[in-house]
């Protein structure tokens, strides 16, 4: 399984036969090395409806004839744009050719701001994602604060790899993300949603070193880099 970090919260996961991308934000992402046209995937998974998580979803979906999987509101929004969609909601699981995706809760907000209309479009509840792929369980927390039910998620699911935001300001910061990793009982952690902009600048390496004090593995992947996860 190959995992590519495209910066911010954009993660691409590729198996031998399939590829998915989570929260595609490339064209206006100053950290991204790839462009939307470079992405080849079968599925697009969205955690919530902020522009820095859905900006390139429609173009990638149409270029690849890929299916967008998201909450009911988000799925309808992209369906109206001519995209293939699969609606899902918190607690629900959808089977995939290589495993499954389940939506979990997240504590954040979810709305698309249309500046020209001075309007905010409600995009449903924010979510996290639990993925089972090739016998592994991956958890993408989306944008979220620390919340107590992370303990329950960790108790119910044997999480091999967690993608956790550490940027602070709009999500939990590194200190809370250490607690999150412990509560989730994650074997490995990759930090996301940091250093894209100055206002969410954090030391990813220092965060990983802190996790090691609690026996939790992890590493920093720079935008454009990939790892092989076995």
Automatic annotation (TrEMBL):
A GO molecular function term, named singly, is: hydrolase activity
Keyword Hydrolase tagged: yes
Pfam families cross-referenced by the UniProt entry: Lactamase_B_2
The record's InterPro entries line, in alphabetical order, gives: Metallo-B-lactamas (IPR001279), RibonucZ/Hydroxyglut_hydro (IPR036866), UPF0173 (IPR022877), UPF0173_UPF0282_UlaG_hydrolase (IPR050114)
- Catalytic activity annotation: 3',5'-cyclic CMP + H2O = CMP + H(+); 3',5'-cyclic UMP + H2O = UMP + H(+)
Q: Which residues form the Metallo-beta-lactamase domain?
A: 7-193
Q: Which top-level group of life is the source organism from? A: Bacteria
Q: Which UniProt keywords apply?
A: Hydrolase
HAMAP family, sorted: UPF0173
Q: What does this protein do?
A: Counteracts the endogenous Pycsar antiviral defense system. Phosphodiesterase that enables metal-dependent hydrolysis of host cyclic nucleotide Pycsar defense signals such as cCMP and cUMP.
UniProt lists the family membership as follows:
Belongs to the UPF0173 family.
Q: What is this protein called?
A: UPF0173 metal-dependent hydrolase BEP19_04880
Q: Which organism is it from?
A: Ammoniphilus oxalaticus
